[in-house]
Amino acid sequence: MREDPFQRAPATRVWLLLGHKAGDNTQVLALAERLGWPCEEKRIFYRPWELLTSRLLGVTLAGIDCARSSPLASPWPDLVITSGRRNEAVARWIQRRSGGHVRIVHLGRPWADPGCFDLVVATPQYPLGDFPNVLMNSLPLHRLSEASLAAARKRWASALAPLPAPRTAVLLGGNSGASVFTPAKARHLGEMVNGLARSRGGSVLVTDSARTPPGVLESFLAAIDVPRHVHRWGRSGEDNPYLGYLALAEQFVVTADSVSMVAEAEFTGRPVYLFSLDDGPQWWRRGYNYRFDALVHRLAMSLGPRRMRRDALGMMRELVHQGRAAWLGDAQAKAPSGQRRDDTMAAALAVAGLFTTGRGDAGDSR
Question: What mean pLDDT comes out for the span 278-302?
């Protein structure tokens, strides 16, 4: 019988640092669930001056609202799993107070030097450099599993049964970095998706998300005349069919700004098509690109340290190069392979390795 690495080398006490960003928390919880070790959630709340104290003082709780946050006291854990800049100082403070006993796993791009952590699990959108303790997964961690998809398939099968196959699930993101999701882009996307579904006699399942700008979903729907099922994110009283879409769609179209939704769609093992919101080198001709956030992002990516830059679009191009996705509307591209890859399991195995082979050798999953 094959030995289970998670049973062979369990951390008997694990703390999960959870902050204000749902995406960061999802990755932390996803890794914890895959490990299956005893965990305790630690909710962290921040003071307005947190960025200043973290940058100037480093390992400190001065930027944390300790009265509102979960207690941080001995007995100290064996492992801390964290994500996001704001919790870095907290994790390192815990390790220092434990006398160096605690191992820290950081998910995503760290602001501190990666060498400050026992393991960093990142993705190629962040050029962190060559560190032995960095695991460079191809996509972010997620909480999907065979069991969750099977349950969603059972839950939503009857509701989506009237929609003719093949069903194309469209997952709409929003403004990200320098990319702006406009109603005109949404209309163009809708026309392409409608043509794809119509050519095969299929239907469309579409959902927006928390980041989708006003008017985008409506502009997309204006171009759809095939049978469709629509979910508007955040509308009270509606069951969210997102997992049902993942379980029952035959193919996916995802806006390339959302690496998390791309990761979840790819986990299903079905073809994934990408739609880029990028305007390319002629971006300056578009008035909507002069938003404050977009301009600040362009400036930071041009002038900031290389390790602190982000290139999500480049990561999507690599998926296309590997045949794991295709650009929607690219007549020259081969259909995506629909291969399944479980980066969450790769991260869990690397964490288990911290307790069997020592610190600081994560390898590379690519």
Answer: 80
When the candidates are 3.30.450, 3.40.50, 3.40.1350, 3.20.20, the CATH number that belongs to 146-340 is 3.40.50
- Which of 108-117, 180-189, 195-204, 290-299 is least confident? 290-299
Is the pLDDT at 24 greater than 80? The verdict is yes
| Structure tokens belonging to residue 352 | 């288990």
CA distance 10 to 39: 11
Q: What is the pTM of this model?
A: 0.85
Question: Which amino acid is located at 327 in the chain?
Answer: W
Helices (H) and strands (E) in the chain, counts: 12, 12
* Stretch 60-66: mean pLDDT: 90
Question: Residue 26, SS3?
Answer: helix
What strand order describes the sheet that includes 272-275?
228-231, 203-207, 167-171, 251-255, 272-275, 326-327
Residue 39 predicted with pLDDT over 60:
yes
Place of tokens 């629509």: 230
CATH of 5-138+344-354, one of 3.40.50, 2.60.40, 3.40.1800, 2.60.120: 3.40.50
Higher pLDDT, 307 or 114: 114
Query: pLDDT category, 1, cuts 50, 70, 90?
Result: very low
Q: How far apart are CA 366 and CA 149, in angstroms?
A: 25
Two tokens, residue 356: 């069997």
- How many other CB atoms are there within 10 angstroms of residue 239's CB atom? 10
Is residue 106 within 8 A of residue 117, CB to CB? The reply is yes
Query: Would you list the domain boundaries of the chain?
Result: 5-138+344-354, 146-340
CA distances from 297 to 157, 210, 307, 326, 351 (A): 42, 20, 15, 26, 33
